[in-house]
Specification:
The structure is a single chain. By secondary structure, the chain is of the alpha/beta class. The chain contains 16 helices and 13 strands. The strands form two sheets. Strands 1, 2, 3, 4, 5, 6, 7, 8 and 9 form a nine-stranded mixed beta sheet that branches. InterPro entries: Alkaline_phosphatase_core_sf (IPR017850), GAG_Ulvan_Degrading_Sulfatases (IPR052701), Sulfatase_CS (IPR024607), Sulfatase_N (IPR000917).
């Protein structure tokens, strides 16, 4: 009996040592999140003048995703999907400032089970989701314009004897509005997206947005160097953004400027340097990918699926279809949209086409955020093209269909094109079937603004003029 007890003791002791060895060999994880950055707005993706040297460095060291998409183009639903691997209708965070059930936030929980210490700095989660992020290790939420993420991360490592493996998540608030007033770009040298109205104010704000991207990129470079110093080659570094920028036809929209984001991954000895992939991936796929890499349990019921094979160069495809949803952002944006996209075409369903599309930017018109809107209205008084852009912004058809290969900026709606009717019908059915599978009720949670009434900005002005 004594020998059996000794055997059991040493077996348990050895198993514990075995699992510690496994944990020590697992890669450390560093995730750097930008806030409100469209994919096109980075030098890696072809933006001219804009300087993002850290992103360039990451691209040379790892793999760049040409087709990375979020689940929803607003902060809370996007981050909720990232942390759960579930689309908004399934995880419960459909509108902005709504949150998934804590029981569904499995990223931190499953990594902890694998032995990871979770460290979260800045805006990684959103609102009440941050409680989950702070259960283990350091949690630090920053939303003010002052950014000192690198300093806080460094001070934490200096003051604590952290033992691996570590999952370090850093959420930079940039380039979320308000944008910096420390402008480093000449507004007249920048190229504006075709959906914009070219005014002096637009260019000034666009230059400020670019300046914040460069500031974010610089901060990310410091964190990347810290990861190299602390972890050597034993880490995976992922840079991405929660959705597109806060500009018209970007954030709160299902056009690619709203849902297509930068994503670059570096994983020494696993990812071939200086590679690009056209594989379509979604933010719901990040969670199962990290769990796959760390030999953690991957929940069977999630919507996401691992793209580890893409990272390692063993596959050049991942998804055939990308589904995205947007439901609204309290009273500022009440315009639910659903879409399905393949490698060439996109079908968009606007659930309330008889109401105004609107959001914070055209309603509030704040300095260093969206103050350019007044110049748009003024120019539209005499410029038919400007007037048409504003009309297109406010009033949308029930359905939209775009040939992304020939019209990447989604300027020409082909919904009535005879040539494309068969494809439109097929994608309409795909989206309808998917919405049923998701149990998406296409709900509207706030009263919409009917197009036969005043515009939301006029309502806001009247309400706040007293």
């Amino acid at each position: 009996m004594k020998k059996l007890s000794i055997f059991i003791f040493f077996t348990i002791f050895n198993l514990g040592s075995f699992y510690k060895v496994i944990a020590q060999n697992l890669p450390n994880i560093v995730i750097y999140l930008a806030d409100d950055q469209s994919q096109a707005d980075g030098s890696v993706y072809g933006a001219k003048i804009l300087k993002t040297p850290t992103a360039d460095k990451l691209a040379k060291a790892g793999i760049t995703f040409n087709n990375a998409f979020v689940a929803s183009p607003s902060c809370a639903p996007s981050r909720g999907a990232f942390l759960t691997g579930l689309m908004p209708a399934k995880n419960g965070a459909e509108c902005n400032h709504t949150y998934p059930s804590p029981s569904k936030l499995v990223l931190t929980e499953n990594l902890q089970k694998a032995g990871y210490q979770i460290l979260s700095f800045g805006k990684v989660a959103h609102g009440s989701m941050n409680e989950e992020m702070g259960k283990d290790g350091r949690f630090d939420y920053q939303s003010s314009p002052k950014v000192d993420l690198y300093k806080n991360v460094t001070e934490y490592f200096d003051a604590n004897n952290t033992k691996g493996p570590i999952c370090l998540m850093v959420g930079d608030r940039r380039p979320h509005v308000p944008w910096t007033t420390n402008n480093i770009y000449n507004p007249n040298e920048l190229t504006l997206p075709p959906s914009f109205i070219d005014t002096k104010s637009t260019r000034q704000h666009w230059a400020q947005y670019y300046s914040d991207i460069t500031g974010m990129d610089d901060e990310m470079g410091k964190v990347y160097k810290l990861a190299q110093k602390k972890f050597g080659d034993n880490f995976i570094f992922i840079y991405t953004a929660d959705h597109g920028a806060q500009w018209p036809f970007h954030k709160w929209n299902l056009y690619d400027k709203g849902i297509k984001v930068p994503m670059i991954a570096v994983w020494p000895k696993h990812i071939k340097p200086n590679t690009r992939t056209d594989a379509m991936v979604s933010w719901i796929d990040i969670l199962p990918t990290l769990l796959d890499i760390t030999n953690s349990e991957i929940p069977k019921e999630i919507d996401g699926k691992s793209f580890k094979n893409v990272l390692e160069g063993k596959a050049d495809k991942h998804r055939d279809l990308i589904f995205t949803t947007h439901t609204g952002d309290q009273t500022k944006n009440v315009y639910p949209i659903r879409s399905v996209r393949d490698t060439q075409f996109k079908f968009i369903l606007n659930l309330r086409p008889n109401t105004y599309h609107s959001n914070h930017s055209d309603i509030l018109r704040r300095p260093n955020s969206d103050g350019y809107w007044d110049s748009w209205d003024k120019k539209a008084e005499k410029d038919p093209r400007a007037a048409a852009i504003i009309q297109k912004y406010y009033v949308r058809p029930a359905e939209e269909f775009y040939d992304l290969a020939n019209d990447p900026d989604e300027q020409v709606n082909l919904i009535f094109s005879e040539k494309h009717q068969q494809k439109i019908k097929a994608m309409r059915l795909l989206l309808d079937d998917w919405l049923k599978e998701q149990a998406d009720n296409k709900d509207v949670y706030t009263m919409p603004y009917p197009i036969n009434g005043p515009k939301p900005h006029d309502i806001y002005k009247t309400k706040n003029s007293h």
